[in-house]
Write a structure and sequence with these properties.
Blueprint: E1 5-8, H1 14-25, E2 29-31, H2 35-43, E3 47-48, H3 52-56, E4 61-64, H4 69-80, E5 88-91, H5 97-109, E6 113-116, E7 119-120, H6 123-127, E8 131-136, H7 140-153, E9 154-161, H8 165-193, H9 198-206, H10 213-221, H11 234-250, H12 256-268, H13 281-288
Parallel strand pairs: 1-2, 1-4, 2-3, 4-5, 5-6, 8-9
Antiparallel strand pairs: 7-8
Bound molecules: nicotinamide-adenine-dinucleotide.
Nicotinamide-adenine-dinucleotide binds at residues 8-14, 31-34, 37, 52, 65-67, 71, 74-75, 93-94, 119, 122-123, 231-232, 236, 240.
Length: 299
């Protein structure tokens, strides 16, 4: 039996993920509110839909890759209105844990199964089909049904525990990614002020326990080469750090280092940096220090 898969949210991540899914699994039904994003995936073989309802009508699996909790709730509600019982909603967005639990409850009330499977790594990994998925799921049959999608879009599937654990692990991981990104920006600006060579600073970082993916992969392939196109916007990064701060607050936990860095993202997103890649924290830190942003020589 041919299965109907719908994919809603075709931005920096959802676009390449859906295109990779189509390449491996054949046409899937796609929708995005931004025509240019929809058109890109239709050009890759997606079946153009004019609404969430058209995409999700009688779908076996509805995948959502949307900015934040409100969009996920809006789209899941629209999908549930037309899905049949027994279908699956697979939310891959990064949203609040409470938002995930509420989306799961909305699905349950309609007899639709729900998995949270937020995505790790960068947009470049999504384009290369090398994403990592953090899966929260206690329904083995549902997991087996969505597994071919994971295999088409990524190379690492990590089962995190029951429903809701995927999103919680994702928030913990992004807390690390986003705070390390700011420390990387500050370290590079300090190095520039001390007159050091960026390549040397990067090599020393790689050879010691200071090493991290922001210096070696993200900054090295984006802002350190002068590329600040998103990727992952500072606006969405601020949203994720806010999710971590709120989660900590809800369990009476202070994250003092994180709080300081959260304020940096808050300031950066109040101007034009909001729409830039989060590795452009480097340029923001350089701007505050009134120096030119450090750069690697392109090879
Ligand atoms: P994005 O803003 O590039 O894409 C989101 C897409 O959703 C856009 O195309 C937008 O038009 C669409 N959309 C918004 N509301 C909609 C609606 N009601 N119906 C249909 N489409 C709608 O964001 P992104 O970078 O692709 O991130 C998506 C999610 O993945 C976010 O939760 C983000 O935090 C998370 N994430 C991003 C990255 C990354 O590197 N960009 C990595 C991992 C996880």
């Amino acid at each position: 039996m041919t299965r109907k898969i719908a994919f809603i949210g075709l931005g920096a991540m959802g676009g390449p993920m859906a295109s990779n899914a189509i390449r491996s699994l054949g046409p899937i039904h796609v929708f995005d509110v931004v025509e240019a994003n929809l058109a890109r995936v239709v050009a890759a073989g997606g079946v153009r839909c004019a609404s969430v309802a058209q995409a999700a009508q009688n779908a076996d699996i509805v995948v959502t890759m949307l900015p934040a909790t409100p969009q996920v709730h809006e789209v899941v509600a629209a999908a549930l209105a037309v899905m049949k019982p027994g279908g699956i909603v697979l939310d891959m967005s990064t949203i609040s844990p409470a938002g995930t639990d509420a989306a799961a409850a909305m699905c349950e009330a309609r007899g639709v199964r729900f998995l949270d499977a937020p995505v790790g790594r960068l947009a470049s990994h999504a384009a290369a089909g090398k994403s990592l998925f953090m899966v929260g799921c206690d329904d083995e049959a549902a997991f087996d049904e969505v597994k071919p999608l994971f295999e088409a879009m990524g190379d690492t599937i990590i089962r995190c525990g029951g429903r809701g654990t995927g999103i919680r692990v994702k928030i913990v991981n992004n807390f690390q990614v986003l705070t390390i990104a700011q420390i990387t920006a500050e370290a590079l600006v300090l190095a520039a002020k001390l007159g050091l060579d960026v390549e040397t600073v990067k090599a020393i970082n790689a050879g010691t326990t200071a090493t991290n993916g922001q210096m070696q992969v993200n900054f090295a392939t984006k802002s350190l080469l002068g590329d600040t196109e998103p990727g992952f916007t500072i606006d969405l990064a601020h949203k994720d750090l806010t999710l971590a701060m709120e989660a900590a607050n809800a369990c009476r936990l202070g994250l003092p280092g994180g709080a300081a860095i959260h304020a940096v993202y808050g300031a950066a997103r109040s101007g034009p940096y909001a729409r830039k890649d989060f590795s452009s924290l480097l340029d923001y830190a350089a701007e505050l220090a009134a120096i030119s942003p450090p750069r690697l020589q392109a090879k």
